[in-house]
Amino acid sequence: MLTISDKSTRACDGLTRRGFLVAGALSAAGLSLADLLRAEEAAGIRSSRKAVVNIHLDGGPPHIDMIDLKPEAPVEIRGEFSPIATRAAGISICELLPKLAGIADKFVFIRSLVGSVGVHDAFQCQSGFSENDQKSSGGRPAFGSVIAKLRGSMRDTAPPFVDLMQGRPFVRNSARPGFLGPSFQPFRPDISKMFSRPLEEGMKRELAAKGADHATSLSLIDGISIDCLHDRMALLNEFDRFRRDLDASGMMDAMDGFTRQAAGILTSGRFGEALDLNKEDPRVLARYSLPENASPDQLGTSEGASWPKKLLLARRLIEAGVRCVGLSLSDFDTHRANFTCLRRILPLLDHGLEAFMTDLAERGLADDVSIVAWGEFGRTPMVDVKTAGRHHWPNVGMALLAGGGMRTGQVIGQTDRQGGAAVSRPVSYQDVMATLYHNLGIDLSSTRLTDPSGRPQMLLDAGQPLREVVN
């Protein structure tokens, strides 16, 4: 195993930790690389830019205040916001999302997301599964880890899966690779210098208790040059030759390949440049920018006016070759002051989505990049009169889909008059995941992963691509 670490750094939670880049042995699970490359070539997407951006609305977005308003319901249910018409005929959404309303024809509004496991963790949004599914064999892998397995290559100079999530998804390692093993974990660059997102005290304690380091450093140890790195790799290869000669399974060759990929990512410059927003066209950067006073922090919450630039970072990473990017928008856990919180958070989402969609269209990526924005559950129809908040509501939630060549400008599903239950076209988390796999050209009926016991596992066990949106 090759570990390239840097000196002590301070991460987004304010704790001093050592950054690291770890390249371990490839998991024996799943298809062979040769099989996967042949499958990609047969599908005609080997050199495509097809990718997924998974936006986790951390805390549980209140569907009834965002895309499923109930203006005829009693005031204790309908809340403080009014619906506005959108560019898509017959669809209305929250008045705090005027820019999204203007591009509603580019989105699918799912109002009937069901099957939440009801826990504060982004894993279900990252995989479609409960964290307990296949737990005895390591747990199910996140979508991005599956893509890394199916679409990654040792020749890549950008990691297939990059996790930019901060806050709770970061602490709880929501994008974990499960039974695929650590070789398919996401790259997690430390973006805290670009996006200050302090962890709450409880999350700091939770992270410290785990003793885990999630960040990935893209710099070498002080005093180690690129030439020295290559010399060291050559020495390690010579030292391990006798083990490779004895290794009938081929795992040593796989480990060597993964090590070369890790070093290639580190040294190529392409991935590192993608992470540097200073290299972006100032006019494009301005499109994603909001004035710092545009969203005043009245409740001590964490996301700031720079949040839309995370979507710009995602676009730059995709252009560098990343296949799946996960990021988060925090502060949707609105047990208190729900409407005050949303007045600050929703304009960030609104501005970011419009800038992102416009940018993708101008760069010819709109049909290649699939976007999903969702959370771990919805929130209660009834407003708590004591806290002015809405609480956890796993019964039904929401999701937004865009891009990926999908048929957009439509609503899927309907809830009852109080927004408390799906009364038509329930959509599961796995249905959404199936749609994303479909958009990447992955055949769910024939593709299997092999778990550590040698058993073939389907990518999903129940979901089907949404017939209303796929082509």
N/C terminus separation: 43 Å
Q: Which radius of gyration do the C-alpha atoms yield?
A: 22 Å
The CATH topology turns out to be Alkaline Phosphatase, subunit A
Count of strand segments: 18
Our estimate of the beta-strand percent is 15-25%
Average pLDDT, rounded to a whole number, is 83
Tell me the overall shape: globular
**Total separate domains:** 1
Q: Can you name the CATH architecture?
A: 3-Layer(aba) Sandwich
**The CATH top-level class label:** Alpha Beta
Major beta sheet summary: 8 strands, mixed
Output the number of helix runs: 16
Q: Uncertain spans, ≥5 residues at pLDDT below 50?
A: 1-41, 220-226
Helix content: 25-40%
Structural class: alpha/beta
Structure commentary:
The protein is built from 16 helices and 18 strands. The chain is globular, with a radius of gyration of 22 Å. The chain starts with a strand and ends in a 13-residue tail after the last strand. Strand 14 and strand 15 (422-424) form a beta hairpin. With 471 residues, it is α/β, with parallel strands linked by helices. The chain has one domain: Alkaline Phosphatase, subunit A, CATH 3.40.720. Mean pLDDT is 83; it is low at 1-41 and 220-226. The protein has helices at 33-43, 63-66, 75-78, 98-102, 123-127, 143-151, 168-171, 201-210, 226-239, 241-246, 251-268, 270-274, 282-288, 308-319, 338-362, 429-439, and strands at 2-10, 16-23, 51-57, 83-85, 92-94, 107-114, 161-163, 324-329, 369-374, 378-379, 392-393, 397-403, 410-412, 414-415, 422-424, 427-428, 448-450, 456-458.
